[in-house]
Design brief:
Helices cover 28% and strands 20% of the residues. By secondary structure, the chain is of the alpha+beta class. The chain has 3 domains: 84 residues, Phosphorylase Kinase, domain 1, CATH 3.30.200.20; 167 residues, Transferase(Phosphotransferase) domain 1 (Transferase(Phosphotransferase), domain 1, Orthogonal Bundle); 220 residues, paralog of FGE (formylglycine-generating enzyme). Strand 5 and strand 6 form a beta hairpin. Helix 4 packs antiparallel against helix 5 and helix 5 runs antiparallel to helix 6. The radius of gyration is 25 Å and the shape is globular.
Length: 498
Amino acid sequence: MNPDSDERYLGEYHLRELISENALTRTWLAEQVSVARSVLVDELRPEREDQQQLFLADIRAKAAVEHPLVASVYEAVAEPGQCYYAHELLPDATLQDANLAKQPLKPARLAHLLRRIAEAHLLHESLAQATLPTGLENVHVDEQGLIRLDNLAIAGPREAEQSQRDIVHLGGLLQPLVADHKAGTTRLFTLLSWMRGEGIEAPLTWTQVRDICMQIEQQLVGPMPVTVPTKPAIRTSKKPPVLLISVAGGIAMIVILVLALRMRPEPARPHVPSSIGSDALLIPDGKYPTPDGTEEALQAFRIAAHEVTIGQYAEFLELLETLAQDQRHRTFDHENQPSSKTSHLPDDWEALLAAAKARATWNQRPVTLDCPVVGVDWWDCSAYAEWKHGRLATQEEWYAALRMELNEPSTIPPAGWQSISAENSDRTPKGICSMAGSVSEWTRRPAPNPANPLGERKWVIIGGSYLKPGSNALTREWIDDRSLRRPDLGFRLVFDAS
């Protein structure tokens, strides 16, 4: 929109493109030169200098928000002739995009997103922060399915009715995004109607929205109770509307059928969309070279383009916390997992997650939520894969994916420790990242070491490691213990082709 923007700087910010403007401000896509990262810069128009104090007051309100889901404010500058602030650039994809494309979300996924939105609003509420209403365009979802929110805090007192207005507003906006005829559809429609004030006497609070979403998520994980979502502390009319009675009856019939179909020994699995599966690459069936120099016929499968990240694994742990309330936290455990293993927390998890959320350092290395999760053993990886309806790759599948359109795997330059979203040359022609470096990866089953083909079959770790100079995509290790954990050991998932 502005051909001269490439030559303009505000402080250390190189202005690349004018994104939007109004009577008060201009918003730029910019590069923060000192750290080589893309940011957004909101600039107060020079002719509106009389509004500088109000502009700065809004920035101070935004900077006071400290929540992992809400976009961060990096810096504000007010100098003669220029007034601006830099803030986090969130993923392009928003719920508004999904709405316009008529791509509804499965109820389990939408309940999770709404719960996270409620948690952010509870923070604003606890700090008495005024905010603009949350729209679908303010809810960003990245390629891994992680949700981030625009920072909508503004200066001024928070009105007493703001939470109620926001809940009603969002209850209407989300209605078209609920996928029809899916597990949980009716429950989510019911919640959204309550948010809009339909069928209840007292308006919902953000705490109730969060708790009901947790109930819906929980119900979609295990055997579903024959009820609609519980309404804690909500006063309903003595004569519920006929529509809600019909809904409850319909849910009861559906649940009875579901329970009948689920009468089997193993625990029920949740049907949640796989955030990794959405970027998994298809490897067609056929004969493929193996890392041991032979050939093996493989069925078609899909493999994730990158390792499971810290942010993705954090969502898994959140679900386990919810399941623990009903003693179902072992739902996804492998049948052979040792009874002595009672947790799937990675090594040094608290410090790792805190550093990732703050974009700080861990083990003297920069870390974000998009860095691969490490410090996990084979049992942790297996449980996560079970949750995502995936599995670990065999070494043969991993190697087949590596060799797609690539004659010589050793030519891929290994990468050091890095975020999976970073631009790097450690990728195959098919776009599979970090096979030659970053972190090594667990595989699915034991195999003999070709150096001792008659020896014991051991568990295989494959791929390069940032801690092992000279390692690359052809590197393999054979170990005895599936409980091994290391700061350079992670995993990625594969899925059935269909």
